[in-house]
Amino acid sequence: MTVREQIREIIEPRNESIYSRLYDWTMLSAIVIGILPLMFRGHHMVFFYFDLFSGFCFIIDYLLRWITADVPYKHNRVLAFLIYPFTPMAIIDLLSILPTFNMLSPTFKVARVSRLLRLLRVIKIIRYYEPLEIIIAVIRRQSRILWTVFSLAIFYIFITALIMFNAEEDINPETGEYLFTTFFDAFYWAACTLTTVGYGDLYPISNIGRVISIISSMVGIAIIALPSGIVTAGYIDELKSRKDKNSESK
User: What's this model's pTM, rounded to 2 decimal places?
Assistant: First the structure.
């Protein structure tokens, strides 16, 4: 095994070697440290060192993945080096590094978006946090069914909003205006009712509006439960599939 192949084995997430596990935990720590300053408004000196350590880890990770981009491929290895910088995760990795360059040199004019770019570091967790990766895999596998459920939910919200917008015509005694002054208000109310969020800022005041609200809430529970069951079943199947694959490889 060549040196580059050994490096690739280490940087690939969830390999069984102790070096790979240590690398995974180091990168996870760098991600957490990198997003920690986003939880505070002020700028403390310790955050400077957090960002410096986090950015250094991201740069090393990006370079290691680039120089070993051809290892998984037996053919077109030169092409792999050219394609890698344009892959989705590589772009996210690169954008995650930019705030560090901005911190080191004010000539990099990204100060206004540096905090937003740091948010991209959260996405990097997908690579190292297996349960989240499994969820993403399940969503991809069940995308057609989930999209159907999502379309059903949007259609139901639209219909409920349309009915409520025309049915709730009583004047709100607190404001002296209609409950829904625009269709967007009705759509917002229908979305909150469907998801059973219930912020309470908009609520029907007429009897017919309350009846519609009751029906919408009951149907909403059923619609919201559909994707939960689909994702749960897919998650269990994905875990079983990965467990069987690991057993076969051993």
Answer: 0.64
